[in-house]
Amino acid sequence: MSQFSLSTRTLPPTHVIDLAGFLDAHTAPQLEGAFKGLIDEGVYRIIVNFRDLSYISSAGLGVFMAFIEEVRTHNGDIKLVGMSPKIYNVFDLLGFPMLYEIYDDEEQAHRKFTEAVG
């Protein structure tokens, strides 16, 4: 089984989830827990950094669909950053760029959230 890790950190006015390794059916519950924990704390401005993610399955993709509506209901968003071309292609094939803002780097996404707050 492949390794997966995630960590969360605060980058006001956002929270960042950093992903690493393989996000699949076995590891998706960890990401679900991270999203649920942030939402339970009233955090609705979330950046997900894919910089160190090497693989994502349909189960991993499903996690993003499970939480976007609730986040947006609270005037928040989930912005995706740092995808390798391989990971981006998976998102692109399923039409995610029409649903999510995807940025090359974390600073761009953070600036969008900061502009929205300011």
Characterization of the model:
There is one protein chain. The chain is an alpha/beta fold and 118 residues long. The chain has one domain (4-110): STAS domain (Transcription Regulator spoIIAA, 2-Layer Sandwich), CATH 3.30.750. It is built from 4 helices and 5 strands; from the N terminus they run E-E-H-E-H-E-H-E-H. The protein has a 5-stranded mixed sheet with strand order 1-2-3-4-5, with helices on both faces. Strand 4 (77-81), helix 3 and strand 5 (102-103) form a beta-alpha-beta unit. Helix 1 packs parallel to helix 2. The radius of gyration is 13 Å and the shape is globular. The N and C termini lie far apart (44 Å). The model has no long low-confidence stretch (mean pLDDT 95).
List the helices and strands and how they pair.
Blueprint lengths: L3 E8 L2 E10 L4 H13 L4 E12 L1 H16 L3 E5 L3 H9 L8 E2 L2 H12 L1
Parallel strand pairs: 2-3, 3-4, 4-5
Antiparallel strand pairs: 1-2
Helix pairs in contact: 1-2
